[in-house]
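Many introductory courses stop at the sequence. We go one step further.
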Amino acid sequence: MRLTFFTAASLVLGALGSALGKKCLTEDAATQVANNFRSTIAAYTPELAARVFAVDFLDYSDGVNMLMNNGCPNGPKPLGSPTFTSLADFQAAQGTQPPIPFEILKIWYNCNTVTLRWRSVAPGFVQPEQQVTGLIVLETTRSKGEEPFLIQTVYSEFNSGAWLYDLGIFVPTNCAA
């Protein structure tokens, strides 16, 4: 077999792609990471969180900070600060929350990051409930455990105003009917 430049280049690129596939997220792995995160919110268990999050887990969300502050921006979780600074912090908070089902609308991914767009219509007590939509960026780290990729850092934002309204905390006084 005569080795041409294009044949050699194809072999090198194929080997590189195979090696990266073991270190980088694939579509199936990205979908699993997204579904793992959704499960920690919709059907939380401490065992699940321990299986899918890295030990040095961090979470950032001004939307969640606003909810934790009951809509007051200067509450105990200042806007711009981490929401959870460890897996233990997340587990303590999420373990006290009711399940929050949400639908994944779209998933994007690259080598170590999964981004998802989501929607929930179930957070509230006020009728009619407001649809809440958001974006979540999940930075992952490679694992040798049961899950090939663990969620290391979460960046999440959503319509916290609609969520606060659904919870009956925020009631607008000057909205047109």
